[in-house]
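Repro:
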Amino acid sequence: MDGRDTQGIRRTLTVMEAGRILGISRGCAYEAARLGQIPTVRIGRRLLVPRAALARWEARKIGRATYITGASIERFVADLPKAQVRAS
């Protein structure tokens, strides 16, 4: 098992990848992870963001439910008004 779903998409993101998706800086992403503001899981020394947990978190924060996979997460974030992305 290589950590990919049935469509070949990784189940986790790095904190930096999650930050890019959310439109925040690397430092802001790590600070949000440290404060528990974005969902993370530690595996050994690696700090990862489960893709499904990030989708649920976004749905709660933004009030819009969706199932996010692969490239659709970038389209999902791109479709949001910028004020909502920054306010999260």
